[in-house]
Design brief:
This protein is an alpha+beta fold. The chain has 19 helices and 13 strands. It folds into two domains: 277 residues, no CATH class; 161 residues, no CATH class. It is 47% helix and 14% strand. The strands form four sheets. A six-stranded antiparallel sheet has the order 8-9-10-11-13-12, with helices on both faces. A three-stranded antiparallel sheet has the order 2-3-5. Helix 1 packs across helix 18.
Length: 488
């Protein structure tokens, strides 16, 4: 457990520390009616209308929580993190998963648990390539994944839509319609999954191109154009595109570009013995990582040779954690593969829902991702290393780019955001249905709009609070208490 993961005394509204499944070898199999009854009974502990509540802000210290995370991060990169978070209330929200986890811990919970994404805001959904080379839509960030109350993911998702809608200048009525659509889509999707067989739920996925072909006739010309652009851009984001962007030729050998502070090759980051020690550490990490892959994927990876490595700054909330990229080549220079090695720390949820049952933080991320996603990166794995500085750290590894794509949130219009809620609501419900008791959750939600209404109330209240938190960060930067680098 890290310094920012101290255990906290539970209150009656908080979930107990446990995993979605019983820890014992024998797994119980209650009947469908028993599971429905469990969901109905949960309404007594937390009525659906109670989810509109937001606890008092008295005693909150959002900036203090962010600063707690500094101890385990690369100090020279922290100004970039704060600079990115200070760009807008939405950017702040993206980096403040710990702040929201602390707030959610004080809200009512149904007691029904799933594998949480832990950071289910709308920018953490997107497109990527499946192993079968289909373009699928799913959650794509699992740094904070951990078992916990299903409501927490839904509330973080809903608040992100409200905050993004404000960022885009949508009217109050337009934002309310988006939130209503989001709550209804999650609730109805969960009811649909509750009626399906186990295998039907497990195999369910959203194939973007197949769905686009079916819906094309009902979409406006502008929607067709934008969807076509998104698909094309996603397919262009592959290892060859990354190679063109991130590699330069040095004496006939491909090398990762030097673009500090965002990308720094190893021979610029360290010199002499430090560089050699770090490269040996990373090579050892890759050798150990291969053992976490299935034999066929390990065989595929072994056809590539490591050519160069570098440090790369990624994301908003993740800035400051250690992230490296490795350039590999296969049969020739036109056969590149980029792997990203990203440090995994304790989930921000740990202090509120209990420690992970998996000791290795990288393994926690990978197993959570495989459980929630319909299909995952073929090179997804993990490794534990002792750094050249003597500190033990966990990493997870995946491809840097494999048909990555996302909605353009700077251009999205109200109608487009409503359509996007259908994708996100269905996807999150599917992820929760795979790991939790979908029948109990569907029974809890019921057929009325009670939860949908409460979800909208919560999202609006939290967006107000987030704006206040954003202002506090800006003040801390203006006062000189926090250093921030803008535009990076």
């Amino acid at each position: 457990m890290t310094k920012d993961s101290k255990p906290r005394r539970s209150t009656p509204s908080e979930p107990k520390a446990s995993s979605p499944e019983p820890a014992a070898d024998v797994v119980g199999h209650p009947s469908v009616e028993q599971r429905r009854a469990l969901g109905r009974a949960a309404r007594k502990a937390a009525p659906r209308s109670s989810h509109g509540q937001l606890a008092s802000s008295e005693g909150r210290d959002p900036v203090g929580l962010l600063r707690e995370q500094e101890a385990s991060r690369v100090a020279e990169l922290l100004p970039i993190r704060y600079g990115r978070m200070s760009a807008s209330p939405f950017a702040f929200y993206r980096g403040a998963a710990l702040v929201m986890a602390s707030d959610l811990a004080a809200t009512p919970t149904s007691g029904l648990r799933v594998q949480l994404c832990g950071d289910a805001h709308l920018a953490n959904f997107g497109a990527y390539g499946s192993p079968e080379r289909a373009l699928v839509f799913d959650l794509n960030d699992f740094d904070e994944t951990l078992p916990g109350p299903w409501e927490w993911d839904v509330k973080r998702m809903a608040a992100s839509f409200e905050i993004a809608g404000r960022h885009r200048g949508f009217s109050t009525k337009e934002r309310a319609r988006v939130l209503s659509e989001l709550g209804r889509n999650y609730r109805e999707s969960m009811a649909s999954f509750a009626s399906k067989t186990e295998l039907e739920v497990w195999y369910a996925r959203f194939d973007i191109e197949s769905a686009f072909a079916e819906l094309r006739g009902s979409l406006a010309k502008q929607e067709i154009k934008r969807t076509t652009e998104i698909v094309a851009r996603a397919k262009a984001h592959d290892s060859m595109q990354a190679y063109t962007k991130l590699v330069r030729d040095v004496n006939g050998e491909p090398r990762i570009i030097d673009d500090p502070p965002l990308i720094v090759p190893m021979d610029k980051l360290f010199t002499g013995e430090e560089r050699d020690a770090l490269l040996d550490q990373l090579r050892g990490m890759l050798r150990g990582y291969r053992r976490t892959l299935t034999s066929d994927r390990r065989h595929l990876l072994e056809q590539f040779r490591l050519v160069d490595m570098g440090r790369k700054v990624v994301g908003v909330g993740s800035v400051g954690t250690r992230a490296f990229i490795g350039l590999f080549l296969g049969r020739d220079g036109n056969d590149p593969l980029f792997l990203q090695m990203k440090e995994a720390q304790a989930s921000v949820l740990e202090r509120f829902v209990g420690k992970s049952a998996v000791k290795h933080a990288g393994q926690r991320v990978v197993e959570g991702q495989r459980l929630m996603q319909a299909t995952s990166d073929i090179f997804l794995g993990w490794q534990h290393v002792t750094g050249y500085d003597g500190v033990e750290r966990d990493f997870y590894i995946r491809q840097l780019r494999d048909w990555k794509g996302s909605a353009d949130l700077e251009r999205i219009i109200p109608r487009g955001m409503e359509l996007y809620t259908r994708l996100c609501g269905w996807t999150l419900a599917r992820a929760h249905a795979r790991s939790g008791d979908r029948i109990a959750i569907a029974s809890y939600l019921g057929n009325s709009a009670s939860f949908d209404v409460a979800l909208g109330e919560f999202a609006r209240a939290y967006a107000d609070q987030n704006e206040g938190d954003f202002a506090l960060l800006q003040k801390a930067i203006a006062d000189g208490g926090i250093k921030a680098t803008s535009g990076v």
